[in-house]
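Risk register update: the risk of archive-format incompatibility is retired. Evidence:
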Amino acid sequence: MKDVAFWKDQLAHEMRDMNAEIEHLLERKAVMEKMLFDSQRSLAISEECMLQREKRCGIDQTFDDPEKGLCKVRLHCSVVNKTSIL
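Archived output:
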């Protein structure tokens, strides 16, 4: 009878640990979903800026620091979006 009680306690302990882990994972999932949403907004804004820059003609066309930053944002957001599919 003691053996059954021991395993019952072990099972209850594992269930508590598993429920705590599930709760932690759900919290992390919510944070990651918010980050994904925010990165999609950043991507849309940076792509709009890039489209406006690509419309420039002649001497107005430059590859400056802001454009390099926009390219980094585009790259970062595309990596995040690709990993979100997984």
